[in-house]
Design a protein that fits this description.
Length: about 270
């Protein structure tokens, strides 16, 4: 399979879910250099090396410039098989749009993708890796295909147990990427004080009230599926996505990225 880029430019604009401010991005075709974010003349490669923050979001930075909340866009690049693209950013954060990766995928599909000359690399996990933190854990093992088994559990009647297995053969766009970020209404004030969720609304977030939902879910297990969408976007920071079997229990950005850092650290034990 050949590497891919876009056939034409794609534009998105909207409010950032954390900053609450308007931002714009323009995706441009590229033939090399991977995924590169351009902000105020600074090129920030979409790789783990430029990771700045993973609290409530994934942010990249270089030379004093930062791009916040890249995970949904990176998830869309995974879904569309995009290997090389320039992302021109005007603002501080990637627009939230509807809170999922789906609108980014739809925009890319409208202009289409173009095959390049180089073959895609394939990346297989060749050892067992486990990370743990405060009753949460994640691991990956060697496996011939991509498989992600994810479990979440919160003190909420609708979220005490949600579980989903993505086997790499499911329709990622329709089953996973369409699932939105979620949050608890009771957390909003505290998050706002920390500078998070300032742009969160029923338009871009699945909102859980004390014992129900403020808006309508797309699937009964939308929350756990969104976690898988986030993980795929984060794994794309070390693309190609390492093929193997993953299990995550009560994960989030921080735990995901600890696992991904360990995978990157053990690259000499991973076969291409």
């Amino acid at each position: 399979m050949k590497e891919r880029t876009l056939k034409d430019n794609v534009r998105f604009s909207g409010v950032g879910v954390h900053t609450g401010r308007e931002s714009k991005v323009v995706l441009e075709p590229a033939e090399a250099d991977g995924i590169v974010f351009l902000k105020n003349g600074v090129e920030i490669s979409g790789t783990l090396d430029n990771l700045r923050s993973c609290e409530r979001e994934v942010s990249l930075s270089k030379n004093g410039e930062e791009v916040r909340s890249v995970e949904h866009l990176m998830s869309a690049f995974y879904a569309c098989g995009i290997d090389h693209v320039k992302v021109n950013v005007e603002g501080d954060e990637i627009p939230a749009l509807d809170g999922s990766a789906y609108p980014f995928i739809s925009g890319i599909e409208k202009v289409g993708v173009e095959e390049l000359t180089k073959e895609k690399k394939i990346f297989y996990i060749n050892n067992n890796i486990t990370v743990e933190a405060k009753g949460c854990f994640a691991y990956c093992n060697p496996f011939k295909n991509l498989k992600i088994h994810y479990v979440i559990s919160y003190d909420h009647p609708l979220l005490r147990h949600q579980e989903y297995v993505f086997n790499g053969k499911s329709n990622f766009k329709e089953d996973i990427a369409i699932c939105r970020t979620f949050g608890f209404l009771s957390w909003k004030e505290k998050l706002n004080r920390k500078g998070f969720a300032l742009g969160a609304s029923e338009e871009n977030t699945l909102v859980y009230t004390e014992d129900g939902l403020l808006n309508e879910d797309r699937f009964p297990d939308e929350a756990v599926k969104h976690k898988i969408a986030d993980l795929m976007g984060e794994l794309y920071l070390i693309k190609p996505v390492p093929i193997g079997e993953y299990f995550v229990f009560r994960g989030g950005h921080s735990l995901h990225l600890r696992l991904i850092k360990e995978i990157k650290r053990s690259r000499d034990e991973i076969r291409y």
